[in-house]
Amino acid sequence: MADLKQLENLVIQVRRDILRQVHKVNSGHPGGSLGCTEFFVAMFQVLLERKNTFEMNGIGEDIFFLSNGHISPVFYSVLARSGYFPVEELNTFRLLNSRLQGHPTTHEGLPGVRIASGSLGQGISVSIGAALAKKLNKDAKLVYTLCGDGELQEGQNWEAIMYAAGNNVDNLIVTVDLNGQQIDGATNTVLPMGNVKAKFEAFGWEVISIKEGNNLEAIIEGMNKAKSKTGNQKPICVLLHTVMGNGVDFMMHTHAWHGKAPNDAQLEIALAQNAETLGDY
Amino acid sequence: MKKYTNTGSKDTRSGFGAGLTELGQTNPNVVALCADLIGSLKMDDFKKNHPERFFQIGIAEANMMGIAAGLTIGGKIPFTGTFANFSTGRVYDQIRQSIAYSDKNVKICASHAGLTLGEDGATHQILEDIGLMKMLPGMTVINTCDYNQTKAATLAIAEHQGPVYLRFGRPSVPNFTPENGKFEIGKAVLLHEGTDVTIVATGHLVWEALEACATLDDAGISAEVINIHTIKPLDNDAILKSVKKTGCIVTAEEHNFLGGLGESVARVLAENLPTPQELVATQDTFGESGTPAQLMEKYGLNAEAIVKAVKKVISRK
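The joint structure predicted for all components is written out below.
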């Protein structure tokens, strides 16, 4: 396992990657990406038991799905910096003929991506399917999914949440990015979702909360706890409390940067708050 | 004229069930999912024989499509089963993103398509599903005509890599294609050679086309009858070859004239060989309750309607 300092350096570099990707094309979703940076780094550098080469079937390794596909900048950066494709390819984000589509797809064959996502609410269902296939294949590795909190407003999630508990899909860990924000504002003003923890528990899930969702050690500890709970007849939900826009002061605690790129001056300020660590692409 | 014998009417959905049962024995990667319609889809045997490979999803079709997509990632070949309405319109975006765009090897198997679902009425009688599915890039669209062909198609799509929409129905219809015949995806079947008009039919209308052919034969009109079981990819060559000879065409389907087989054929003709065409299809309308035969008559989807369309199209040559 990489040491904490290395991971922290990677977090800062990934933030720079996110900001530079969306700035270059003046589009994309930096807020949620920044909020989940520590989670992605922890997952791909520490937690996922994954192979070094990418195979679509994911047999014999943990599988990760991103359901809220709009946070593709963080996904792409961490995939690239975890060896799935050249870091320089981040230069092609959202450009014509790129494998780095606005939302992640399998269509262009980008290593690390196993399903298209972006139209929200579909990831938990897909994860359940992959988890069931692992059981059929007697593959003891796990399936992980990340979805947004606003995304839970889509009804398909609750079909999936009901199914997974009712059918003891216990090799599945669904993490919900609880940043409390969505495009039109705070989730509590757009469509109050009540007590998400109680809802998952009422459906029969084991729920673990990570209160410091932007703290690497807290994430690793919480996810390891989640992992230890697998195989006990219940699917696992991790409520990851994050701050949207984390690491860039003017992007934090607001929905304003959900889907907006910084201009030149804003980029300069944001990058100055995150000095280059491992080298820009 | 060449005669086709009904070896005993059966429902096409039972052909699907029989094919799935066989796949259960021959292909360990085949898994089946159903959204609370096991009996209607004839999936009972597969469920009984392979409980570990059968997934009762409940009344949650969107979730079913997503789970099917996920199962392919572990190398499985999922067959989803529910009514055509709930297999397509209800879950269009799930199919679009998680299956078609993601190029997942899911077989979407849809029963009770069209008017012949009968008494349940328009809420369940989808007449738009072929259009919805054929518009999705990479989706193969098949509409089989009888029990034997549905069974053969079920076996064939398991061997095909990529998403497939397989459409079949509820009522008993004549079973006349060869037992254990080979099913070639995308290859039209020439049922009867003729010289005056081409009749291209799909699904339940294929038998009606043969009946129409016999009636026309008695009237001295020589009709060529082609069974287009695969609407996408369409067998353009078979269609063009036939109309070069006959000079006019009637298409027949249990589907809206917008988005169905007729429109696909019209495009091929417009691009290659403009030819008079009449469409036997529903005319941009919903269905209603009634017996299958009553509905097919009222909405003009039977042999009589095909004969009428043939006479009209010949007059336009």
